[in-house]
Amino acid sequence: MSETTTDGTAPTATHPLVDGEVAPGCKKVDPIVVADGVIRQFGGLTAVDVEHVEIPRGAITALIGPNGAGKTTFFNLLTGFDRPNKGSWSFEGQSLAHVPSHKVARRGMVRTFQLTKSLGRLTVLQNMLLGARDQRGESFFAALVRPLWRAQEQSNTEKADSLLARFKLDTKREDYAASLSGGQRKLLEMARALMSDPTLVMLDEPMAGVNPALTQSLLDHVKGLKDDGMTVLFVEHDMHMVRHISDWVIVMAEGRIVAEGPPETIMQNQAVVDAYLGAHHDTDLGTLTNQQVAQIHEAAEEEVPVGLEASATETTTTDAPAEPGATAHDEEGKR
Amino acid sequence: MDFLTILNNSAAEILSPSTAAFALATIGLNVHFGYSGLLNFGQAAFMAVGAYAFAIFTMQVDPTATLGWPMWLSFVVAVLVAIVAAVAFALVLGIPTLRLRGDYLAIVTIAAAEIIRFTVRTSDYSAVTGGSQGLRGQDYKGDITGLNPLTGTTYGFGPWTGTAYDTWIRILAWTLVVVALILVWLLMRSPWGRVIKGIREDEDAVRSLGKNVYSYKMQALVLGGVLGGLAGIMYVLPRAVQPDNFATAMTFYIWTALLLGGAATVFGPLLGSILFWVLLAFTGGMLSGLQQIGAFGDMSGTQAGQLRFVLVGVALMLLVIFRPQGILGNKKELSFHV
Ligand SMILES: Nc1ncnc2c1ncn2[C@@H]1O[C@H](COP(=O)(O)OP(=O)(O)OP(=O)(O)O)[C@@H](O)[C@H]1O
Ligand SMILES: [Mg+2]
């Protein structure tokens, strides 16, 4: 099935972000993150197995893939929250392997979490202020002498207020973060990450649970980050968002990078369709006639060499965002 | 039953130096648990470390007698030795556990507290620690007695009357409490305190914002431990050093006082400590009074005395059910427990 892939799509051989030909793990003109041979196993399960991947600087890159593909684990590895079994990676040319998570953040690579981590018994404003970098008042002895940090605190507060206004949280400024709704916490976490003026923002499902009206303004805000010179890497299942704001899409499945490409064409890539749906994804197994079942078995027989792999991918996923038109086309081409 | 005596004895607890020492230990635990979320179940051990280090240094080295130091210098150095010992104890507990989940610190502090108590109790070291007998007060109180500026016989009024020495210790201990309260207040309104409280809520979130969580937890553990060590000194200045004063029961009294007053508030530990000792003295007095007039039938005086701890337990349960945030705590801060 892999040979017949790009029937329905015009293969994009080159792209302005890419140095050379577009392919999984391709070289970028100006990469900000480069990862090599990163492997993370949980017992017998290989959650992440990335041979080579580069994240382009100054662009918005989406990392997509079915549930359990290893996206969050890969985020954890890059930011020092988890240790890989093997591998090396660098940020702005400097190696990040074995660098503890707080030092990763100080270098300008700041992430948010899929399961939000708002600090419940601090107010929204305190949450924000915690995000600011290089605070003099955070050292024990300087903390005792307010004049040493008052001015800095003042300017951080102004910055926090303007970010809160942008994220429509200004009315919640003095509320405890624990009283926020799930979506508001996502917003708070994103705003807090931006307090440190990061070079690279890594967002793990930033839009999950955020209402559609706000999504639009947030999308614009994320685009705004790029205009401010930041690089954005985000994980998202909402294909609307991916198509709308990303410049580049990287697809993961079962720990591997299976495809890369611009958002307009990525969903037509056969590897992506397989990753999300497995083979035979357009057949509704609920209403099969006997004849169809026989056909499927025949088809399955032909695929014996890759049978193991195919049955493994079959287990995925629900909110599959593939284009039905394009994929049906592919399947026809096969028959 | 003399109700006035009972009231008088209870009121005396409000300003007693022991209450001050206890409040100091509770302020330390508040830094640990209330602000940083560190589960320290061995605060009594920090008190023991401070008390023994102070007393042993004074008795063994005795710089006033052997080196001819002025008394104030000997006393200050003995206090510094106790602080260093408390810092070292905090580091020993913290280095292996603070990178792990919170429960590990809890287990290690419980165990370490018992190890400390058994070590000072054992007869092998009784030449230094006094074994299960402890150390006599007069052997280490020389400097502080000599430094006493009060020359009269009694000071104060009403329930708060005391000898010159008692009043001197009272002034020292309560001054230290005030200093500790100001220190905690200054720290907790600062960005340092914000990081500490953030760690209490979620370590990983604070880490993702570029803060060295391990270092902050260690600083908090050391600060609260040093306050505990100073509390130990203040606790033994009015009496002798008794190893069994620093048993697990002491740790749980401190916890009770903290929860009663309100964790994560500046004045909660102070209020909680005062209330705890006043209530304990009051119920103790009432119960023995009632026992004497035969209200409990055949119950002996000792048994009636034990009954007050049952009452303390019941009071603690009621408190947790009806006012979990403590007296001064903020309902909102506690009720949203994420
Ligand atoms: N701490 C862990 N222990 C054991 N297995 C883990 C652990 N963390 C992740 N895994 C496994 O690693 C695989 C990848 O998980 P990961 O959370 O990275 O997926 P994901 O791509 O983020 O999925 P989703 O889109 O659902 O968030 C899963 O099969 C998961 O069960
Ligand atoms: Mg995930």
Word description of this protein:
The complex is a heterodimer of chains A (335) and B (338). With 335 residues, chain A is an alpha/beta fold. Chain A has 13 helices and ten strands. Among the domains of chain A are: 31-118 and 180-277, Rossmann fold, CATH 3.40.50.300; 290-334. Chain B has 338 residues and is mainly alpha-helical. A two-stranded antiparallel ribbon of chain B has the order 1-2. The interface between A and B is large, with 43 and 32 residues. Bound molecules: adenosine-5'-triphosphate (ATP) and magnesium ion. Residues 71-72, 114 of chain A line the site of magnesium ion.
Kindly identify the CATH topology of the domain at 31-118 and 180-277 in chain A. Rossmann fold
The helix-strand sequence of chain B is HHHHHHHHEEHHHHHHHH
Greatest interface and its residue counts? A-B, 43 and 32 residues
Beta strand count of chain A:
10
Enumerate the spans of chain B where pLDDT stays under 50 for 5 or more consecutive residues.
none
Provide the spatial order of strands within the biggest beta sheet of chain B. Answer: 1-2
Main sheet: strand order of chain A: 6-7-8-3-9-10
Mean pLDDT of chain A: 81
Q: What global shape of chain A is seen?
A: globular
User: Helical content of chain A, roughly?
Assistant: 25-40%
Shape, principal axes of CA atoms of chain B? globular
> How many strands, which pairing sense, and closed or not: the largest β-sheet of chain A?
6 strands, mixed
Distance between the termini of chain A: 11 Å
Q: In what range is the share of β-strand residues of chain A?
A: 15-25%
Mean pLDDT of chain B: 91
Number of domains of chain B: 1
In the predicted model, the low-confidence regions of chain A spanning at least 5 consecutive residues are 1-10, 306-335
Order of helices and strands of chain A: EEEHEEHEHHHHEHEHEEHHHHH
